[in-house]
Amino acid sequence: MVVLNAVIEAAGLEKTYPARDRGGTPFRAVAGIGLRVERGEAFGFLGPNGAGKSSTMRMLGGVSAPTAGTLRILGLDPAAHGRRVRARLGVVPQDDSLDVHLTVRENLLVYGRYFGLSRKAVRERAGELLEFARLTEKADERVEHLSGGMRRRLTIARALINDPEILLLDEPTTGLDPQARHVLWDRLFRLKQDGVTLILTTHYMDEAEQLCDRLVIMDKGLIADEGSPRELIERHITREVLELRFPPGEHEQVAVKLGRDGLPEPERLEVLPDRLLWYAEDGETALARATAAGVQPITALVRRATLEDVFLRLTGRSLTD
Amino acid sequence: MTPTLPRAGGAHLLVVRNLWVHKGGSPWTMALFSVFEPVLYLLAIGVGIGGLVGQVPGVEVPYAAYIAPALLATAVMNSALEETGQSAYAKLAFDRFYHSLIVTPMTVGGVVAGEVLWGMLRGLITGAGFLVVIAAFGLVQSPWILLAVPAGLLIGFAFGAASLAATGYMRGWHDFQYVQLVMLPMFLFATTFYPVTVYPPVIRVLVETLPLYHAIELVRGLALGRLAPGLLLNAAYLIVFGALFLVWARRRWAWLLAS
Questions:
Q1: What is the pLDDT of residues B116-127, one digit of tens each?
Q2: Three state DSSP letters for A87-148
Q3: Domain ranges in chain A?
Q4: Which residues in chain B land under pLDDT 70?
Q5: Least CB-CB distance to B103: which of A86, A99, A117?
Q6: Is B1's CB within 8 Å of A125's CB?
Q7: Which of B166, B193, B221, B245 could anchor a disulfide with B161, C-beta 3.0 to 4.6 Å?
Q8: What CATH code is assigned to A238-304?
Q9: What is the pLDDT of residue A89?
Q10: ipTM of this model?
Q11: Does B90 touch chain A (CB under 8 A)?
Q12: Facing A114 at nearest CB: one of B21, B105, B259
């Protein structure tokens, strides 16, 4: 039996920042969202830049007070019990913000003290975490000499110094090379196995599919949809996507020729400047139908639908900033 | 692990962290850097110009002995300003150091108090260092000068708090020029080099509102052994000034870090 035990509950959560300049308009970064995260879950926030992910994370971290709505973190109201809440959280910010004047080990030792841990407890824990983050050999190096991946691992190790129940990660692998990302995913997966609740934001759909049990897609301060990666794909997109490429300028004509408006649900054609996407349950069949209609693409590719397709469907293709 | 929340918002932990970062340099090297500039003033103006001035009328002490306490007060002030000014700004804007603190059980109040405390500690070290210089120059006039060092704590408090509040408004390095714009005239005219009695009454009132004037009065009174009830007033001024700016700094930094 699964015992449900919410570590985070939010309803009608809003965050509005006052206008920067006199006479300016206030900025509503989060426009009313509801959330429930269970203990041990890996929960993701996806969304374009400016969707409100980071603002939400700051509220969940007990740092930034919601403008409206209710929020319970580990059963506590962070507005009243911010310190007690923060004592049980680990936060991995978007930019590492390590203490650059200290060595790797010192970063952990000092940080543990901020949580009120004894020197002895911090020393032991720091040793374990250096091992966990594969930084034992770098323990006495200054932080400025570390690679991006090492810094990120150290930031995560630092966030774990207080043995948190919830780990909040804001874009944990942005800017890392594939090797570093995979090492990091492996570490995060281990934490999840140990029962730590993971809450993360990401721009990478593969990361969300890899790590998240459940996720929300945010857009313009609201939740566009919520579910497991698989559920979201099933709900919004067909199983496969056929990508067809034609000489520039012909895509619109071809779309008409393929009977764009008469496709059976849930099939759909999307015209992009360089490609035509045909969302279909079976890509090969769709390709056969295209050939039968006398269409001759330069290239044709059948692939599985991904979370990225869902993401673009829900949040649009135009740049947000 | 069940952590007990650090007391006082963790102010002392920030001081410990700063000490840790500075462990490469002993307190004496820190003091050495901070007393370099005032020693130059003491030589050029105290000894050099002092040779022309002789005794300060109304006080009847050698000129160098007259300005030395003012230079001590200024040096303590500058040490506190350095830590809570440009150094704090770098930690805020570039290292994002404070942002990494407020996600822990540390509080903004603890962070602000910790940085002011650290500024006071730096001032204390500078004050002790410059006291040694004064003694080496043979300018000690009274044993009460020993109290100038704890008096320096009040100076560090007043200027540390004000400077940390101001740092909360800096938009870039260039804004620190405005701080210079206030500090340099204050240094020159807040009775560092001559008694307040040289001013016409209107200007005199103006000068007497300056915090550095009260810092100098306090240290000079102790250094020259001229104990008077007025010194308590000077001390009270510094405490109230510092307390007001501490509250202001806390509000501003809460907005900066948590909005």
A1: 999 999 999 999
A2: CCEEEECCCCCCCCCCEHHHHHHHHHHHCCCCHHHHHHHHHHHHHHCCCHHHCCCEHHHCCH
A3: 6-233, 238-304
A4: 1-3, 23-27, 259
A5: A86
A6: yes
A7: B245
A8: 3.30.70
A9: 95
A10: 0.86
A11: no
A12: B105
